[in-house]
Write a structure and sequence with these properties.
The protein is an alpha+beta fold and 596 residues long. Helices cover 50% and strands 20% of the residues. It is built from 23 helices and 17 strands.
Length: 596
């Protein structure tokens, strides 16, 4: 807990605002996603991030000796140059007015701070051509009012900011109703949330006593909201400029530009002003400003183009961790992985989340631990579906064979929990396991990008499964005996005679032994022979190769397959621990999915 502060110094302001900026930058993508006002162009997070990170160096370079008024002046002037977007410009105006309110002061008390906030808010309202309640302006006003309330009762900044933080949070929640009236969408106002994040970061610094340096080196966000729906945008271009000149004033610039569009904001002081307007005639805006002074910076954003670029994509894809999906490949194709649960000596872990796969694998190989597995919960699937819906209109879940696990059933329960939206979700039983799931998911992504509907993709996957082949050689029958998958007597006989069952799936997804051979080398050769009989001649296939602690075996299998079949794509990986726990070490598998 930081010590109580009765006066705000320049160094405190710099550190507190830097912490606040760091807090906001972490949420920039979410801010983009809820941006619907004044137009749904999905860039509020990007604009606020650009504005603040551009001005942050002024705080970093401020040092310990500058007066508070000097630090705020440098920061506010930097904001004028860097301000971007409606909320960025309003925020910049707010800090300019705050700087004017504390001009000449080396430090300020909580009461002076509250008075400066109120003056800044009042003048910011005046700077906006048509201030709209229920937006960032209302939340600014409520926070300033809360500061005055707290300053009357306490002379401590931590107490004041705590009160402001809670009141601002309540004010922020009320913007949902305002957005519902303004835009028909019940989301909190993005600009207001950005301002709240600054208050939250400032409070965090004063409460905890240490500051966080924002990452100001990241590239500007190009991605925008995935929640946005197309709507009419009357003024197409978000136009901004920084102009410098003698005899300029907010009143004069507003008079000259008012007829050219909406969302007009002119902010600044002295010779330097920042202009923001939504217009269909950006060239006319620049032409007018050029006559009044020197244009230092200018920017035009096509909001219709931005809106169209941010529509939700068609299909989100979810798999379970028994798919053995390589994480880098899943990330590349934006495929969500739901972890199965693994019990180690009675303690439950989510595979790859609560415990690393490498650690589970080591324990399996040691054969000293009681290891069991369990399906994901419906809640686990629901979380993945919710994440997918943030970006996509429909969600396809591809699961481990329903004959092997309750994973398919858990996904169906999660699907039903979405009510009317459940029709936008399809749970697909792969009737396979491991890379069979993964290759199906990749093929679904291909077809989605080609424009296939969810219904068409499901029909296509069903056709693929009919012509696919999955084979697995169990390396250690002890694991299957231990986990109750085969009887102790048959397991003992198989182990003694080094019998290697070659497992496959029937049409329903049930696992059975297609062949039993003696010795691992012969088993690998037999797998290739089975593939030669099962796969269509002249067809091209994608192949997946998995193993559990058997690098030499999977290498040999891959070489044989590559030499005998027409191959389009291959994936090779370790089997996940949830599979390895049953197959044991020295197990190897292959799956072939046709390119049809």
């Amino acid at each position: 807990m930081a010590e109580r502060k009765r006066f705000l110094k320049g160094s405190d302001f710099a550190r507190g605002i830097l912490t606040a900026i760091a807090n906001l930058l972490k949420k920039r993508e979410y801010l983009n996603s809820i941006n619907v006002f004044p137009v749904p162009d999905g860039d509020t997070g990007s604009n606020l991030s650009h504005t603040l990170k551009g001005a942050a160096p002024a705080l970093i370079e401020a040092g310990e000796q500058l007066k508070l008024c000097e630090v705020v002046k440098r920061f506010s002037e930097a904001l004028v140059l860097e301000a971007k977007g409606n909320s960025g410009v309003i925020l910049s105006q707010f800090f300019i007015e705050f700087q004017q309110a504390i001009r000449g002061k080396e430090t300020i008390s909580p009461e002076e701070f509250a008075e400066a906030l109120n003056r800044a808010v009042d003048n910011t309202y005046k700077a906006v051509e048509n201030p709209v309640e229920g937006t960032i302006l209302t939340v600014m006003k409520d926070s300033a009012k809360a500061a005055m309330e707290a300053a009357r009762k306490s002379s401590d900044f931590v107490t004041l900011l705590e009160h402001v933080y809670h009141k601002t949070r309540k004010s922020l929640e009320k913007t949902k109703k305002a957005m519902l009236k303004l835009k028909g969408k019940e989301v909190i106002d993005a600009g207001a949330f950005g301002y709240f994040l600054l208050i939250e970061g400032l409070y965090k610094y004063f409460k905890e006593g240490h500051y966080e340096m924002p990452d100001i080196d990241f590239e500007d966000e190009q991605k925008r909201s995935d929640y946005i729906e197309q709507e009419e945008i009357k003024e197409r271009y978000c136009t901004e400029a920084v102009v410098e000149g003698e005899g300029l004033s907010q009143k004069k610039l507003k008079f000259l530009l008012a007829a050219l569009g909406s969302s007009l904001i002119v902010m600044g002081a002295g010779k330097l002003f920042h202009v923001h307007v939504h217009t269909n005639w950006p060239d006319k805006v620049f032409e007018i400003l050029k006559k009044e002074g020197r244009i230092l910076k200018k920017k035009i954003d096509d909001m219709i183009e931005m809106n169209q670029a941010t529509q939700k994509k068609e299909l989100g894809i979810v798999v379970d961790s028994a798919s053995d999906f390589p994480l880098d490949l899943a990330h590349e194709h934006d495929i969500y992985i739901v972890p199965l649960t693994i019990f180690i000596d009675g303690t439950a872990y989510k595979e790859g989340v609560d415990i690393k796969r490498e650690e589970i694998t080591r324990m399996i190989l040691e054969e000293k631990h009681d290891i069991k597995t369990s399906q994901p919960t419906p809640h686990d699937f629901r979380q993945a579906i919710e994440r997918a819906f943030e970006k996509y209109k429909n969600v396809l879940i591809i699961t481990l064979s329903s004959k092997l696990s309750g994973t398919f059933g858990a996904a169906q329960i999660a699907q039903k929990s979405f009510g009317n939206k459940m029709h936008n979700i399809y749970v697909f039983d792969s009737r396979m396991a491991s890379l069979g799931e993964a290759l199906l998911a990749l093929r679904a992504r291909e077809k989605a990008e080609e424009g296939y509907s969810l219904k068409e993709i499901v029909a296509y996957l069903n056709k693929l499964v009919t012509y696919s082949k999955y084979l697995l050689v169990v390396g250690n029958l002890k694991a299957l005996v231990k986990r109750g998958k085969i009887g102790k007597i048959s397991g003992a006989i198989g182990t003694y005679f080094k019998i290697k069952p070659i497992l496959t799936f029937d049409e329903s997804g049930a696992l059975y032994a297609e062949e039993k051979v003696r010795g691992i080398d012969r088993a690998i050769e037999k797998m290739v022979e089975i593939l030669e009989k099962s796969l269509k001649r002249g067809w091209t296939y994608d192949f997946g190769f998995t193993h559990f602690a058997f690098e030499e075996g999977v290498k040999k299998l891959e070489e044989l397959v590559l030499n005998r079949f027409s191959v389009h794509t291959t994936i090779k990986t370790w089997a996940s621990p949830v599979i390895g726990a049953y197959t044991g070490p020295k197990s190897v598998g292959v799956v072939a999915i046709p390119r049809i």
